[in-house]
Structures are given as structure tokens and as C-alpha cells.
Specification:
- The protein has 446 residues and is of the alpha/beta class.
- It has three domains: 3-40 and 218-407, Glucose-6-phosphate isomerase like protein, domain 1 (Rossmann fold, 3-Layer(aba) Sandwich), CATH 3.40.50; 49-216, Rossmann fold; 421-445, no CATH class.
- It is 46% helix and 14% strand.
- The protein contains 17 helices and twelve strands.
- The strands form three sheets. Strands 1-12-11-7-10 form a five-stranded mixed sheet, with helices on both faces. It has a five-stranded parallel sheet with strand order 3-2-4-5-6, sandwiched between helices. The protein has a two-stranded antiparallel ribbon with strand order 8-9.
- Helix 6 (138-154) links the parallel strand 4 and strand 5 (163-168).
- Helix 2 crosses helix 15 (386-407), helix 9 crosses helix 15 and helix 11 packs parallel to helix 15 (386-407).
């Protein structure tokens, strides 16, 4: 099971500038109130991600088991929450779990990007999974229309078997297409927002296709959820990490850096960026007051970014909280041969494992940050597997909504994103947005 080490977020002999442990106790009433709100929201059914570990996944397994073995690639067409979770799971497990099938994600409307994806695949052996809850996401639907036309021309008899639709159970244009066109279809739960949907059909279908043990992933999420139900904040990793990040925001630490020491978990940091940014970045609190809340998430990669970003983090503005992700055991490893025992500059590496060097560098970076008085914490994976990944996903989803409660904002909406969507509809000539087009025309003429 993954472990959370918060010691370097609280004052200790090595980090005297960190928060005093008494600050945690000072907020015990606020923590209790926020936790009670989570319980009420769960009972009201607005936090559907909590219940995903109990969902049935036999419909996914049955579909995957019945597929023609010739299909070796799935291309996910989606953006934001419909894409990042799929990428995070596949990237984390493709090598460690030795997945046999490939998952690619088309999450941008850059035409060169789409061209490059098409160059990597063989149409005869590829499935396309269109994921959008509303069915009206411009980026996803444009890719759907382009690829649907390609498939219809090349496979006029069975094109509908090569495209999957994942959308709302009842509503939306895409649901109509799925029901009338004979496409295999899956569901985005109505009470689960996109960025919280990775443990639903949204992320489980592509994972099962690739060969991920989705039952184990859901079991890991359930175990973490159980761990995070205790009222004792010091034993509840989601509440503790959320509270400490909230307190550091109040101290002016408005940047959250996630730095996995594993290339496999780099896309997990990408998934976290959307979750944290879109959930907490809000102009107004629940009373309508302007507060401009949020903490900017940044991703880094150890050891790569020790040679690019750490200089800033240790000696630049002290406005960051850094989260390491450590992997204790890798499935694949190498022994560094002592090829030059006569050269002191490199002979010390001989006989050491590559993973030993990687984790020594992580600890060294932690020490450097502590010496510079920079707060940091550590999420520890005993190994990268489906169960631990499911636990990490649930941990951050609970932490995010809890932190939103502390900030007194709605962590489930995204009004700033909607504004951009409306402008896009107007620019692309969608009916009903004439007024917005006139406003944009005036803006462009200035």
C-alpha cells in the first residue's frame, strides 16, 4: 500500500521554517466541519467518485474478452478528464505490468498531432474510443467526425464495430449517435465530473483493453477510501495533505510541484495538475465573494529536472510546496558495472543498481530542499501496480474535494473553462452565439 510521509511539511530539526504542528490542531474544528460536509455530499449523491470501487465492471470485461484478438491498439479521443486518466494509467503500467496492448490518446486538435497518431497505427487493428460526457466537446467531436469518415470509407460494412462511444447514459447528442448507430457504448456516470472519472468506464475500458487488472485497481481505491474515513487527521492522508497544502496557501505558497522519481508516473503528475487546478482555481467562494483561490500545480521529473528546476526551487522564491513520488522497487533494474575502477570520479557508482542511484538522488534533493527551508513531502509506492495506482487516484480525489471545502469554494465546477468554450462556439459559428460573435468582433477590431 502506498504511504504518505508529511514530516517535511511540519517543523523538525532539519526544517525549522515549516509549519508548527500546533497549526494542525488549531484547525481541528474547521477540518471536522469540512469532513462532515463531505459525508453529507456523499449521502446526497454529488460525490459519485467515492462509490466507483463498488461499481460492476463485468460489462467491460465481457466486451474486452469478446474482441477480435487482432485488435492491438485503442486510440482514446477525449480531452481533460476524458484523456489524462487514461494516459496516467497506461503510462504507469505499460512496462511494470507488461501490458500486451497499446493505448494512445488524442487529446488535442493540433492537426500534426492527429497525423502523427495515424502514422503510428494500423487501421485494421485499431479501436477508437470517443469519450465526452456532454457529447458536445468541440475538440473530441471534431476528431470523432474526421475518424468516423475515415472508418466509414475504409470499412463500410463494419465501421461501427471499430468505434466505441463513452458518454452520458441518457442525455446528449453522442448518446443519440450511439443508440442509433449500433456502436458499442459505455457510460460516464451522471454524478461524476470528468476530472474525477478515471475509475469509471472512462478510464477502466482502455485499461482493461491494455491488460490492466482493473479489479485490483478498484480494490486499491477502496482500501484508500477506507483509510481516509477516519476522523483522526494525522492518520488520514487525504485530510492531512489537504490541510497542510491549505495552510501553506495561507502562507503564500501558491505553487504545488509534483515530482515523481519515475518516468512511468510522469503522466500521473499531469492528471494531478488538472484535478488540482480545475477544482481549486476559483474566483468566488460559496458566498459570492471574490477570493481568487487556488494553488498552481507544476510537474517535474526526477532526476531529469534536478538539472533544470531544482535550482529555482532551492534558491528562488519560497512560494512552493513540493511532493516527491518515490518507487521503492522497480520490476526492471540494472547493475552499474565498475568498468573504470581506476577513476575515482565514477568508480563509486560501480556495483550499485540504477534504482539505487535514482532514489539516492531523490533523498539528496529532499535534503537540499530542507537545508534551504523549502517544504516538501513524499508519496511512496512500494511498487508500481494497479492496486497502488488506484489507491493514489482515490487519495488525491478525496484530498481535492476536502481542500475545496477548506477554501469554501465549489471544487466540482469549472466556470472559467465554460467561458472559453462559449467563445470557441462563437468563433466557430455555432448557432445561438450571435451576440458573443459580435462582442468578439469588437474585441478583435480594437
Amino acid at each position: 500500500m502506498i504511504r504518505y510521509d508529511h514530516r517535511n511539511l511540519l517543523s523538525n530539526p532539519f526544517l525549522k521554517t515549516a509549519l508548527r504542528p500546533s497549526r494542525v490542531l488549531d484547525y481541528s474544528d474547521k477540518v471536522a466541519e469540512a469532513r462532515e460536509e463531505l459525508v453529507r455530499d456523499r449521502k446526497a449523491g454529488t460525490l459519485g467518485f467515492y462509490d466507483l470501487p463498488e461499481q460492476g465492471s463485468s460489462h467491460i470485461s465481457s466486451y474486452v474478452d469478446a474482441l477480435d484478438p487482432a485488435f492491438d491498439t485503442m486510440v482514446v479521443l477525449g480531452i481533460g478528464g476524458s484523456a489524462l486518466g487514461n494516459k496516467a494509467i497506461y503510462s504507469a503500467l505499460k512496462t511494470e505490468a507488461e501490458l500486451k496492448r497499446r493505448v494512445l490518446v488524442c487529446d488535442n486538435v493540433d492537426p500534426v498531432f492527429l497525423y502523427e497518431i495515424l502514422q503510428q497505427i494500423t487501421l485494421e487493428t485499431t479501436l477508437f474510443n470517443v469519450i465526452t460526457k456532454s457529447g458536445g466537446t468541440a475538440e473530441t467531436m471534431s476528431a470523432y467526425m474526421i475518424l468516423s469518415e475515415i472508418l466509414r470509407k475504409k470499412f463500410p460494412q463494419d465501421y461501427h464495430k471499430r468505434m466505441i462511444i463513452t458518454t452520458d447514459k441518457e442525455k446528449g447528442f453522442l448518446r443519440q449517435i450511439a443508440d442509433s448507430g449500433g456502436y458499442p457504448s459505455f457510460i460516464v456516470p451522471g454524478n461524476v465530473g470528468g476530472r474525477f472519472s478515471v475509475l469509471s468506464d472512462v478510464g477502466l475500458l482502455s485499461s482493461a483493453f491494455a491488460g490492466v487488472d482493473i479489479a485490483a485497481m478498484l480494490q486499491g481505491a477502496a482500501r484508500m477510501r477506507e483509510l481516509c474515513e477516519t476522523a483522526d487527521v494525522m492518520r488520514n492522508p487525504a485530510l492531512l495533505n489537504g490541510l497542510l497544502h491549505f495552510l501553506y496557501m495561507r502562507e503564500g505558497k501558491n505553487i504545488s510541484v509534483m515530482m515523481p522519481y519515475s518516468n512511468s508516473l510522469y503522466d500521473f503528475a499531469d492528471w494531478y495538475r488538472q484535478l488540482w487546478a480545475e477544482s481549486l482555481g476559483k474566483r468566488y467562494d460559496l458566498k459570492g465573494r471574490e477570493i481568487f483561490a487556488g494553488q498552481t500545480p507544476v510537474k517535474a521529473l526526477g532526476t531529469t529536472d534536478q538539472h533544470s528546476q531544482i535550482q529555482l526551487y532551492t534558491e528562488g522564491p519560497n512560494d512552493k510546496v513540493l511532493t516527491f513520488i518515490t518507487v521503492e522497487n522497480f520490476k526492471h533494474d540494472y547493475l552499474i558495472p565498475n568498468l573504470h575502477p581506476e577513476l575515482e570520479d565514477i568508480s563509486y557508482l560501480g556495483g550499485k543498481k540504477l534504482s539505487e542511484l535514482l532514489n539516492a538522488e531523490r533523498l539528496a534533493t529532499e535534503i537540499a530542499l530542507c537545508k534551504a527551508g523549502r517544504p516538501n513531502c513524499n508519496l511512496i509506492f512500494p511498487e508500481i501496480n494497479a492496486q497502488n495506482l488506484g489507491a493514489a487516484i482515490m487519495l488525491y480525489e478525496i484530498q481535492t474535494v476536502f481542500t475545496g471545502k477548506l477554501l469554501n469554494i465549489d471544487p466540482l465546477d469549472q466556470p472559467g473553462v465554460e467561458t472559453g468554450k462559449i467563445a470557441t462556439f462563437a468563433l466557430m459559428g455555432k448557432k445561438g452565439y450571435e451576440k458573443e460573435r459580435e462582442e468578439i468582433a469588437k474585441y478583435r477590431s480594437t
